[in-house]
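Q: You know discrete backbone vocabularies at least as well as I do. I have my own habits and do not want them to colour yours. No explanation is needed for now; the record alone will do.
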Amino acid sequence: TGIRGFEHISMGGLVEGRTTLVVGTSGSGKTLFATELLYRAITEQDRHVVFVTFEEKPGDIVRNVQRLGWDLARLVREKKLIILDASLDREMIAEAGIYDLSGIISQIIDAIAEIDARLVILDSLGALFFQFGNPGILRREILRITDTLAERGVTSLMTAERLEEHGPISRYGIEEFVSDCVIVLRHHLHEEKVRRTVQIYKLRGDRHYKDEFPFTIEKEGICILPLSAAELTQASTAER
């Protein structure tokens, strides 16, 4: 991932070719995690990315990370990143009969082919559940998206919102089928101080640390602090 500390607590990173779900309450850092993942993938690993936004407008996403020095507009111009705007205006939606996400899936497939993308990010699934009233159909359609991406060998990451820091993993039970890897972001307010933590709730087929680890958001992005499982790389001395 290139996210500082994540490779250590996950013992290697995310599973390639599978789906990862990042969940957290509002303001926990889900979109930032996804955006840093795409930025590191492009700039450090030379992998092209498709970012599908169901909530924020592309311009807002670009502006939100400019302070971190991440120039997403340049990556778009260089054909290394495609941002698909799938956000909808709730007032313009009228449900009638059975609907599906075939249009969005087709756009994603075309975008993958256009830039030979190896990573697809879907942010945030909660916006889809807000826009449409039948969660059963949406679960089926989201599963169809993940199956389509898996068939093409593309690694995918989805974000979803939860209502409380400790409780059901996601708001609509998404983790029941998007379960290759589940990452939980939390931010606790205690004695007027915010403490952010990350937990790898599930990582199918791989070993990983299962504890909560604190992380900070700095000018370079996210920094996870493994604490007792610290990765010590500095040299030591025997001099007295």
The CA atoms of residues 200 and 210 lie 6 Å apart. The mean pLDDT is 85.
